[in-house]
Amino acid sequence: MSKFLKHKECDFEKDRIIISSGKRKYYSVWCPCHPKIKRSNYVLEHRLLIEMKLERFLNYGEVVHHIDGNGLNNSLDNLEVLTIREHKQRHKKLKRKD
Questions:
Q1: What is the pTM for the complete model shown?
Q2: Across the strands, what pairs with 30?
Q3: What share of the chain is helix, strand, coil (3-state, %, to 5)?
Q4: Rounded alpha-carbon distances, angstroms, from residue 85 to 5, 58, 81, 88
Q5: Each residue's pLDDT tens digit in the chain (98 positions)?
């Protein structure tokens, strides 16, 4: 784990829950130390994993995309950072294929 996220409060195994957003489901991790926390002190796990890989927090306007469309598949080879615009375009293309 990179320096900026080395906190005892962030426990990927113990404090991991599944949250729903519309039809999609995502893992969320208890991490009150993160600057992008919501009221519940949980942060999306895929966001944390990408930030650790990049060794920086995501910038405003950056989102994490699940390449295979499975929000529960947080393997790094399934995640990519996109701008909000790129992300919307990617999903638009995926809907056309359906």
A1: 0.82
A2: 42
A3: 30, 25, 45
A4: 27, 15, 12, 5
A5: 445 555 555 766 678 899 998 888 999 988 888 887 877 888 999 999 999 999 999 999 999 999 999 999 999 999 999 999 999 898 887 776 65
